[in-house]
Amino acid sequence: MIPKKKIFTWAAILAALGFCSLLLVKVPALGLAEAKFCGKCHAMDYQVSTYSHSSHALEANCGDCHDPHGLVTGSLYAAYTGSRDIFRVVTNTTPDEIRATDLSKEIIQDNCLRCHGDIMGDIGDTRENGGVHCFHCHQNIVHPK
Q: What's the predicted TM-score (pTM) here?
C-alpha cells in the first residue's frame, strides 16, 4: 500500500507541472497566439486571411485580442478555447459560421480598451449606459463580415 503522503506529494507535483505547462500557452516564443498557429486549422482560413490584411496584423496577434491579458486567466482561457476548437475539428462539428460567445465579446472589448486606452480615456467604455461593444461599429477593421 502506497502511503497517502506519497500519493499527495506526487499529485501536487503533477498538478504543478500541469499548471506550469498550461502557462506555456502565453509564452510569445512558442507562437501559440499567432495567426500562423491559429491558421493551421482549416476552419480559421477566413479569420486568418482577413486578419493578415488588417492594420492589426502589424501590432497584435490573435491572442492579444481574443484572450484575457492576465498570465493565468489568459492561459486558462486559451487552453479552454484551443481544446474546444481542436475537439470541434476532430469531431467535424465546427460551426459553419464562427461567432464570438458573450464571454469572448467581453474579453475582446476589454482588450480594445487596454490597447486603445489613450483614445478611450476621453470616450470611456462604450458598453456603459446601454452602449455597444467597440467592434459593433468597428467590426470591419479585422474580420469583415
A: 0.76
